[in-house]
Inverse folding.
């Protein structure tokens, strides 16, 4: 059995408390919310913090403010289960409710938070292993070693961004609020990420992610599709988030705005702007969807360091983007509109 290393747990009651505790404890401290990612990682000695500052008792991190029509704010400490069942999220941002509801298993969704999900560690077959397994192969640069075992000779780590909700929040144009010793700042969710398997977040170690602000729902449709081997609890090895707005209320109008963001194909969520651009001004037809799906596969560059082969994951990008767009268009598998089938 793998055991946690010794550490001091400091539960914070307020945001100020949390920021102060992080400052007092110095570089050996980490924040913990549900602990569903961090504790297993600590057992494998991927992280060895001396102090953990707990966020679960901070009430304001669990609050929902506003309404979907004007923009809703979700506390970063909301559990994934709470996000998945939040009525306005389900009705107006179904892609987000779907992604939150597909993370791991029910037990972990009742504990894991959306903030922890966005900050979830990047993953790699050579890294998500016990200490002794990693030691036997000589470690790698993400922890304890100095080479990349996936791409020897590479100066960087290619571990994979594995959050389900991050690509969806990005596709929805959400903003994130951070509070740290230097005050607070808000930034677009995409600015939280960096394309590096080790330094995959731009936020400072002592900054607390407090909330996500979703823009007015205003006719946006969204969908999220996830590829994984075991549907009951695996991490994504491909995630496809699509958000778009049409000219008309029904599915026949031309696309006015579109965003397509891929998860688990790089060290950060990866947008597919050319695929989204080719849809603008077009109706969602089997032909326009096919063009967008082809273009969306281009920025998908999975490496051979997670489940399934990387050529398969790249091929599935095209398939999943096609499926997501068809779903948003109300098209069935043959390309007909739902009401024509009924
Ligand atoms: C078996 C298993 C299956 C899993 N499957 C999936 C999956 O399918 N998809 C998926 O996305 N994840 C999966 N996970 C990972 C994890 O359960 C989720 O990502 C969860 O949402 C993490 O949230 P948490 O609150 O538990 O984060 P924690 O473990 O508490 O923290 C994770 C990281 O985020 C940081 N952090 C947490 N909250 C904040 C905050 N408010 N501000 C700043 N930093 C913060 C922590 O310091 C830590 O670095 C799985 C985990 C396990 C063990
Ligand atoms: S991509 Fe390379 S450096 Fe990064 S975790 Fe995997 S083997 Fe280690």
């Amino acid at each position: 059995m793998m055991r946690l290393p010794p550490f001091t747990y400091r539960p914070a009651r307020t945001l100020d408390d949390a920021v102060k505790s992080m400052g007092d404890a110095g570089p050996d401290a980490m924040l913990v919310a549900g602990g569903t990612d961090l504790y297993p990682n600590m057992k494998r000695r991927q992280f060895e913090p001396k102090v953990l500052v707990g966020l679960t008792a901070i009430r304001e991190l669990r609050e929902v403010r506003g309404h979907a029509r004007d923009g809703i704010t979700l506390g970063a400490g909301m559990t994934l289960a709470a996000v998945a069942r939040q009525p306005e999220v389900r009705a107006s941002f179904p892609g987000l409710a779907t992604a939150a509801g597909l993370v791991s298993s029910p037990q972990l969704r009742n504990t894991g938070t959306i903030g922890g999900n966005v900050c979830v560690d990047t993953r790699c077959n050579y890294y998500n292993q016990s200490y002794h397994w990693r030691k036997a192969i000589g470690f790698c640069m993400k922890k304890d070693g100095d080479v990349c075992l996936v791409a020897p000779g590479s100066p960087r780590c290619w571990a994979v961004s594995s959050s389900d909700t991050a690509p969806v929040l990005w596709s929805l144009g959400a903003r994130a609020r951070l509070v740290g010793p230097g005050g607070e700042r808000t930034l677009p969710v995409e600015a939280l990420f960096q394309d590096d398997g080790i330094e995959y977040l731009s936020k400072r170690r002592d900054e607390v992610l407090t909330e996500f602000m979703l823009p007015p729902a205003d006719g946006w449709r969204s969908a999220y599709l996830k590829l994984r081997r075991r549907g009951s609890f695996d991490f994504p090895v491909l995630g496809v988030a699509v958000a778009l707005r049409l000219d008309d209320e029904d599915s026949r109008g031309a696309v006015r705005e579109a965003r397509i963001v891929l998860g688990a194909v790089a060290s950060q969520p990866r947008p597919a702007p050319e695929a989204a651009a080719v849809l603008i001004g077009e109706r969602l037809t089997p032909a326009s969807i096919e063009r967008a799906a082809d273009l969306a596969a281009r920025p998908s560059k999975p490496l051979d360091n997670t489940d399934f082969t990387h050529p398969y994951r790249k091929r599935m990008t095209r398939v999943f983007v096609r499926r997501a767009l068809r779903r948003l268009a109300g098209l069935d598998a043959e390309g007909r509109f739902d009401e024509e089938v009924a």
The chain is about 30% helix and 20% strand. The pocket of iron/sulfur cluster (ligand 2) is lined by residues 124, 126-127, 140-142, 148-150, 157-159, 197, 305 (CB under 6 Å). The mean pLDDT is 94. The radius of gyration is 20 Å.
